């Protein structure tokens, strides 16, 4: 694993390489990063980050960050809208570390790293590389930058500031082996990562092929059940249609004369119905229409009437004028029938004609 130290003041890029659980090499300048190498953990200067510790809600990250922003707003001179606040967790301690840094500074760091082809796995404040002391303070030199760490504090080592915070107590200096062991442990599981909220690392969505296969089988099952339901409904409707057809055939048989051989009940029933009421619209309907038309035309009379099996009604009618016979024809047609008229013949002061009335 590669650990990068961002430039700070006159100090340029620094780095260290971790291999097999130990620091394998230290170096200055920007290192060459292989394509197969994992993204490095980046350490940001202690002087650029303000660290606080406080007991915060532990139900969700959002609640913890909201509470931390309220605490920071009271302790910071800068507007809270211009600050980036990150919350971490340190072992099982009740107090949680809070990192406060300018949002513009975060952007500048990420842009600098992107320009060098780096998308850091984490941004860790330099004091968080040191172990948390049970009491007192630890001090270490991280490649030219001195940092101090207390149980609930972490800052850049400056003579007057350090004396003020420690109350004049000189911090204990970490040896090289202790420092390297602390760095290895810290970068393996950072207690505080500034890459949160709007600066969180974007992760590429991985395709869960197992889930895809399960969803595929679920879709096949749904389609199979849907098809089965459709087949059951089709079978049910087919049985119902056959039952209705049998019932209709039974009713039709009941309407036929007793003893008649049944070949096609529907056709035979239609034939019997036509025989009873006559063809076409039937005798009753046709005669009713003709008589209604005669009553509506003054002076019109029916002299003869005949009805045949084809449903045609032939009526000899007379009236006082040719126009009245034409009116009678129009009235019958208005009832929904077709009327064919013979030539109008005069006789005995009246006019007569043969009307052939059929259904349309």
Q: What does this entry look like structurally?
A:
- It comes from Sphingomonas oligophenolica.
- Keywords: Cell inner membrane, Cell membrane, Membrane, Protein transport, Transmembrane, Transmembrane helix, Transport.
- Its main location: membrane.
- Belongs to the GSP L family.
- The chain is an alpha+beta fold.
- Helices cover 38% and strands 25% of the residues.
- The strands form four sheets. Strands 3-2-1-4-8 form a five-stranded mixed beta sheet, covered by helices on one side.
Number of helices: 8
Q: Average pLDDT, to the nearest integer?
A: 86
Approximate helicity band: 25-40%
Determine the N-to-C terminus distance: 97 Å
Percent of residues in beta strands? Answer: 25-35%
Q: Helices and strands: which structural class?
A: alpha+beta
| Rg, alpha carbons | 52 Å
Helix/strand order: EEEEEHEEHEEEEHEHHHHEEHEEE
Shape, please? rod-shaped
Regarding quaternary structure, what we see is single chain
Low-pLDDT runs of 5+ residues are: none
How would you sum up the major sheet? Answer: 5 strands, mixed
Q: State the strand order across the main sheet.
A: 3-2-1-4-8
| Strand segment tally | 17
Summarize the structure.
The protein has helices at 61-75, 103-115, 159-166, 176-188, 209-254, 265-277, 283-296, 322-334, and strands at residues 2-5, 14-19, 22-28, 41-44, 50-54, 83-87, 96-102, 122-125, 138-142, 145-150, 153-156, 172-173, 301-307, 313-319, 337-341, 345-347, 350-359. By secondary structure, it is an alpha+beta fold. Keywords: Cell inner membrane, Cell membrane, Membrane, Protein transport, Transmembrane, Transmembrane helix, Transport.
